[in-house]
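Chapter summary example.
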Amino acid sequence: MELYRKAEPPSTGRDWPGAFRRQLEAVKDAARIEDVAADHGEFRLQGAGRLIGRCVSPGHEDRTPSMTVYTEEQRFRCFGCGEYGDVLDLLRLADPDMELWEAMMTLSQRYGIELPPRPDSWLRRQKRQAPVRDRIEAGRIEHVRLLVFRLIWMPWLRRLPEGVRDEAAASAWSDSWWIAEQVYAERRGTADGPEGVGA
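The structure predicted for these 199 residues follows.
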């Protein structure tokens, strides 16, 4: 009997590309759900192949144990909040901010699971598309550079005498690339800035 029937959990991988789906399956096959459940709560044996404990979701205040982990099927169900799924869904339930790929990588690193490599066709496509991605990123930095030049340097340049304005503008234009790279890197969350993109 299926209580609290919901949509299929996202880690079932129906619409995922082949390589990613194979990596998900490798993690699901190797990581034991009972080990992950034990990392996030206290579970006790309740019959053959069943563990029971409190829900691992931070949003579900469980007064009585309502989560059942089925060790033979490698699945879980919380009869209090209705959540259910596999080992990846359990990890994401314990950490709601975690994306599916992060859960996959976390479990593969924690349990030493070797992920299947990406196919050669994917590697060739990435190599072929790298120049396009570099040009797009350079265009974005150039846009930020124009904004930096207009907002920071132009008001200052207007106050300079005509004789030194051109030289100062060239220097400011050169400096605005470095500032634009820093602003762009900060907004993207990368500390050192983009690689392979130059003035």
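To summarize the output: The two ends are 64 Å apart (CA to CA).
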